[in-house]
């Protein structure tokens, strides 16, 4: 019974839609009071972006006094120009971690997003390694976007005038039947985004089977690309340390070796602003990328790469380092789930993910209320990612998805922030159900 | 008389063209002998690229244990995401040095060449801040290229399908009458390259008067751009420390505030591979650049920026640091000039620059012999920049220009390398004059 719940324990624990109009009105009144109390607290909390916390960044402060030498293993002075592909010792560490040959990996600057932009620009201006002409010469270019997904992926497409078509992101990856249908007939569909492991924001992990279908499905466009943004490959939240599908080998076996372009970075391993980003692909893809990259670069910051190689020492060094991250952030995810479960469990107006890795929880609220929840939260001093941001053009057709990013705030802040969110979710839901 | 000169002092010191055929044949025979002796030495020397030497890089090794803090002056954690324009304290130091307001400067990653590429890509794909459409939508885009110039500038144009038209680079900058004539009538001419101070490779310095004309000349293209690559702004070789023209103020006064886009970097101040690059322009240009940059970046490596800001402390810190560079490299330039003067002075088959700053000496040899000189030098173990590389499409119409870069080799290597070059210059000249 809803009347059992005080404002400090506001979850009705039974579907709101099963309640009578009068009972819903009661819940609404109680949530309104709870919300007023919330506003009076004058919170200033932020769950907007997937940023590492200060405590996480501190884990990498050994970098600040590295490197201890200025020559890489080959004897090259990392302070000088050159070495476009990045230093071998760091590529080897990530080759091990990503299951990709080191010579198929490029170690670049501090941003994998910049590498993605460069790849898209090269595709638009120059065409793919297996393409016939620049994409910009096509009448139309379209990307398949699993949703909810990563806002910056969609922004890049919109910036380049690339159209989007969405497919649902399921637990085992994108709805591969839907993808296969789309790409089979329409040659304007030139590629798709994918965060294969612990996806942003759903936490989905692309299975071996789904990966196999994606790299082998017939595509009307001969130069179809999968931009495989493996940003969270190593970012496990549980001891079930999922291994990403070996997309490059699968693609080669399927006869489509140039289809995937793989991205990764240490932005959420060492420093979000001063890490090292990686690109990988078929030998031809790597040569294609470096050929264009070399027009505007004489080499990456190899000093920072050597700094990272020394800091980690080996792939196991990275694994041990990631365990430290997990120690810090897993309790925050657990707290998000605890508050959501206690306050929204059984209400029928919210469902959410319990990711085994990555940086996000994807919260679905009563359809039509996500933007209202975000607005209410903002007024109560809790910043959430803008409504719809996990969809192309920021358009969530059902207005129900909210991306929660609990890593940045201290654990002590996650609790009040999430309590506030649940109050807003219930208030928005009862507003809608009562027509208030 | 040529017969006065032994192979170890092979300069005829009088115009080869004034000699009789028999005398030229004598010189040729002697240079052939000198060249054979040279090859027998098995040299392995390199004057190809404008790279700082190890001794120069060592000057900045204070960077290796910086920064001492991880927060910038504003309190932002430089290890985390954000801060697209770069940290204020470093922008202020370079604002002072470049004579540009700090809020009109963007501090970026480690490469100004990458910033130039990004600007050109943005112009092609999105159009200028004062333009009507993307440059890629024009039938033709052409750039004015002062020659000899910087090979990587020309490569970028060729990569983007931008045509080139050359004008001579004079001592006080590009032939501004020629530039003004070209741009006045042809709306396809959308921009020009310029290294305004101690130009690559001529050492030319654009005067205030030339700068004024360039920013005020009428252009048929309303969105004409001057890509003002001030790579050597602070790289003085003498106590006459030339001050670059204040191109942004001049352009604003002339009513063309968006015409110049300024680039600079610390690649040849601190580390060539791990410095900080800068872009500057009108407030609208900066907003335009950041707007596009932000599509593919969440912020630059601010940690490296803070590292640099701490290392320098102030603009005067940079100036003192540049004096140390001068101490190391000025003797190398003096040695280049000494050998050239002693061995080629008065021969009439070579002229060269005596730069007051920058990284290069531009050597003009007997027309039609530059590629032969470079070929001869290569066979003798002295690497020179490929023939024609200071011209668009690597085409030096007179086959006479050779770019010498004496900074990287130790001083002790500059002497034999330059002696070898002079032998090759004389041999190629006498080959040509004798029809050998």
From TrEMBL, chains A, B:
GO terms for molecular function: L-aspartate:2-oxoglutarate aminotransferase activity. Residues 1-20 are annotated as: Disordered. Pfam families: Asp_aminotransf. Keywords: Aminotransferase, Transferase. Gene3D superfamilies: Aspartate Aminotransferase, domain 1, Type I PLP-dependent aspartate aminotransferase-like (Major domain). This is Aminotransferase. It comes from Marmoricola endophyticus.
